[in-house]
Structure formats: C-alpha cells, structure tokens
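User: quick one, sequence for these tokens?
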C-alpha cells in the first residue's frame, strides 16, 4: 500500500479543487491512497500560532505526514510567479527531514492555479520543485503522450497540473485541467508503488 501526501495552500478554492482531482488520480491506482492536507495562512505582521485545527477542510500538515507517506504532490496558487508564502513557510521548516534524508528517493509532483493564462504558472511550478530537488525527491511531470496537454486552452503544463481561474468567482476546472490533475496524481502514485515494490 502506498499513501501519497497531497499538500496544498488555497485561498479562493481553485487550488483546493485541483488537490481533490489529484487525490482522485492517486486513488485510481490499485493499492494507493491519498492523504489530503493543507497549511495555515501566515502574516507578515505577527508570528502568532495558527489554530491547531482549521475551521473547515483538511487538517494542517505536519512533518509526520511527510515521514509517513511514500510520495508527495504539492500545490499552491501563484504569487508573482512563485509559490504562496504559507506553503514556502511550511517547506522552510523541513530541514530536519533534509538532514536525515527522509524524502530522498520518494516521487513528487506539483500543481498551481493563476488568475490569468500568463500569470506565472510555469515559474511557480518550477519554484515548488526546487526544495523537493534539494530533498532528493524524484520529480514527476505530465508527458505529451497525454492528449489534453496539447489540446488545453486553459491550464496544463508538462511541469505539472494547473488551472486558469480567469477571475471566476467559483472554482470550476475545465475538462482538460481535471484530467491532467488526475493524471499527475496517478503518475506519482504509480511511481511510488514501483519504488515500494522494488524495496521489498
């Protein structure tokens, strides 16, 4: 059994909806399950601790979630072509996992959401890959053998799944965005299964 951590930050719901579709892709793989987690918002004005349990949605992630799972799919909205501060803040606190190599050799993928077609999706996806590479994770993308990657007129990238919100008030993914998010989850889960099986 492989459990994949789907860890994201979302403010308006679009990244959260991508996360749910990634989970569906993971759970389409026999023997794989998804563990959905989020991170609390951060403020530049204070470092007051977040409530230990969010008011709604999935629980907040802990380092134990990273230790206990066999793969990771990381999601963030785009902030000026970079990941959002709450997700970066959480990742900055993973140095103990780097020191003992906990994440080395585990597969990982990334996903994002932006307001506009050219709002920095690909640089955001790349920015999320950097700490994962430092941890020694295997980065999983989406190949062009997936037809939707060539036909999408909204989100989708070989670097990871994405969504273009286009100032919508409700987070509604296009058919291509939905498919590609599921493909990303499935690919990470399949690789995790191979790695687990090879290690037996």
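Assistant:
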């Amino acid at each position: 059994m492989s459990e994949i951590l789907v860890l994201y930050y979302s403010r308006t719901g679009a990244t959260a909806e991508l996360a749910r579709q990634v989970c569906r892709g993971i759970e389409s793989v026999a023997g794989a399950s998804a563990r959905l987690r989020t991170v609390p918002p951060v403020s530049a004005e204070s470092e007051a601790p977040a409530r230990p349990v969010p008011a709604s949605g999935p629980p907040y992630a802990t380092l134990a979630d990273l230790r206990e799972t066999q793969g990771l799919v990381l999601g963030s909205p785009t902030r000026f072509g970079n990941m959002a501060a709450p997700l970066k803040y959480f990742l900055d606190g993973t140095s103990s996992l780097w020191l003992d190599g906990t994440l080395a050799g585990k597969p990982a993928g990334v996903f994002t959401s932006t307001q506009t077609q050219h709002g920095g999706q690909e640089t955001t996806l790349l920015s999320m890959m950097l700490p994962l590479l430092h941890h020694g994770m295997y980065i999983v993308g989406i190949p062009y053998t997936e037809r939707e990657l060539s036909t999408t007129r909204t989100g989708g990238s070989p670097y990871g799944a994405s969504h273009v919100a286009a100032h919508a008030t409700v987070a509604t993914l296009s058919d291509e965005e939905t498919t590609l998010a599921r493909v990303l989850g499935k690919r990470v889960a399949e690789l995790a299964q191979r790695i687990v099986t090879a290690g037996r």
